[in-house]
Amino acid sequence: MRTKIIYFLLFSLIFIFSCKKDTKKINETPQSEPTPTTNIYLPIVPQGWPAPSYMFQNNPVTYDGFTLGRYLFYEPLLSLDTTVACGSCHEQTFAFSNGPSHTFSHGVNDVIGKRNSLALFNLTWPNQLMWDGAVNNLENQAITPITNPVEMNLNLGTAVSRLSYSTKYKTLFKKAFGDTLINSQRMLRAFAQFMGLMVSNNSKYDKVKAGQDVFTLSENNGYAVFTTNCAGCHTEPLFSDYTFRNKGLPINAYQDSGRYNITQNTADIYKFKVPTLRNLGFTAPYMHDGRFQTLSEVIDFFTNGVANTQNLDPFMVTPHPITIQQKSDLISFLNTLNDYSFTTNPRFSEIH
Amino acid sequence: MKNIKTITSKLLITLIVLHLFSCKKKKEEDPVVVNTITTGAPTVTTTASTNDVTINITNMADNVILQIAKDTIYKPSTPKYISAYGDTFSVTKFRYYISNIKLKKQDGSYYTETESYHLIDASDSLNTCKFNLKNVPYATYTAIEYMIGVDSTRNCSGAQTGQLDPLKDMYWNWNQGYIFLKFEAYTSSISSFGGHNVEYHVGGFKGATNNIKNVSLTLPSNLVVDNDHISKLFIKANAKECLKTPTTISFATLPTAISPASSKPIANNYTDMFLVTTVIH
What we know:
The complex is a heterodimer. Chain A has 2 domains: about 65-200 and about 340-350, Cytochrome c-like domain (Cytochrome Bc1 Complex, Chain D, domain 2, Orthogonal Bundle), CATH 1.10.760; about 205-340, Cytochrome c-like domain (Cytochrome Bc1 Complex, Chain D, domain 2). Chain A is about 35% helix and about 0% strand. Chain A is built from 14 helices and 2 strands. Chain A has helices at about 1-25, 65-75, 85-90, 145, 155-165, 165-175, 185-195, 205-210, 215-230, 260-265, 295-305, 315, 325-335, 340-345; strands at about 245, 270-275. In chain A, helix 2 runs antiparallel to helix 6 and helix 2 (about 65-75) packs across helix 7 (about 185-195). The longest helix of chain A has 26 residues, at about 1-25. In chain B, strand 3 and strand 4 (about 90-105) form a beta hairpin. The N and C termini of chain B lie far apart (about 65 Å). Chain B has 2 domains: about 1-30; about 45-280, no CATH class. Chain B has helices at about 1-30, 125-130, 150-155, 265-270; strands at about 50-60, 65, 80, 90-105, 110, 115-120, 130-135, 140-150, 170, 175-185, 195-205, 215-225, 230-240, 255, 275-280.
């Protein structure tokens, strides 16, 4: 009899709790996802760097959210014919760019795009992403390559439903967000957690700045050449001011008008985002169309190859001649911006 | 002992059933706390001095109710309309966002709906064209104001859900931001592309290509919110306004407008497509 009473009480308690949970669910808002895990991966803002523009508001980073993002990043299910993942054109070895053999990246069915895959790191700082600034918030970045016909070419709804049918992703979403609901917001936020934590700040340059290493004479001279000729747009410490500029590339067959596609303002024709110079040693080929294979070619263009095209940046109107020695020093300096610990960090490596 | 056992199990079942019902009831009695703001904090207003107001939107083609054609070729049953320019057409898609709804009180102050984003779809009137404004304070209201489109803040606030879920097919991937309005049609005229399809996607929230439109409509009679009934506002949206004043649109010369700059004339045209026809208390 006593046992029965105890059972009663137990049952009642369970039901009371179940009721409470229900009420909580009604109260839950779509904006505030539960944060089930305390295993926090903290976003990194290196000392002396400006405040990032994406601060993970409404999207607190957790180990499980980050890990879900990592699985998604390497998930070919997110392309139409399940052959292409984000990681296919953004490989860690190449600082998450596409590597020297790809001027343009290949999408599903081997369709070729018209731009060179950007390297991915320090993505919480620019407030507009992509070569033309098509994306205004890191959380929505993944939409563009997933749905672009020349990239992964998958309807976003299909992407979400493919994940919803997967037992693996049910488990991963539950770990990350507390329940098995899979929707576009959760998918995109997990992507942002993974990509947002891809911070590269451990190059020789960073160590020198922190007083843990010293430049060679050539690197030091190259730093001076950089400061005089490049730092106007490639601002330290991110090595880009993230503005859009026409640096005077001769117009090629692709006739890509860049930023103009977004703003439809004729003053933006031929302008592209100033790319960062960090990890240049891994990210060849260079420019939005990958037209240069080596840093030497890039420097030759800046010193000797600028074309006076529409909207040429004022800074490029006057030539920037440098000596052969200065060029060699500049390359030495630029190579101090390579961060091997980033391209080999197991945290970001391929996972399935 | 056996008797006690039976009674116990009966009691147990009763308890379970009772609890089940109590749970359900709680859900139903708890309608207030659904509205949210960006920060995620629930907005709870006491029900004592507020009531709901129903908004009922009817999509029109001038004086007749707009019908969405299921086929992109004319069949005898396909509803046809004639534009201000003189093109014959049927509408295959008409959907748009209205957001940031406010009701203006007689004293000039406002009721503002929280999380105010509504995707209206003429092909799904049953589910999208009628909704309730929650917790409207008791007062007399003289006007309704809202945006056609989505405010710039929410365009830049990252991954959204609900009405603003990019899965709603009202989002540009190539130039990120919401599509405010889609007007798609099939016309008998032949366009400069040689086809019969018309596609207008209006969006853009920045600088010179900002196509967010603010609408302010004076009510034909005062809207009284009290504890008597749920008051109703009936609004007509004339799809044909997309095609006229100030710019008379010819399908042959403008078969598509699917970017912020090219869709600007359509946005300027539809700013005046709404009319409050009736207020019922």
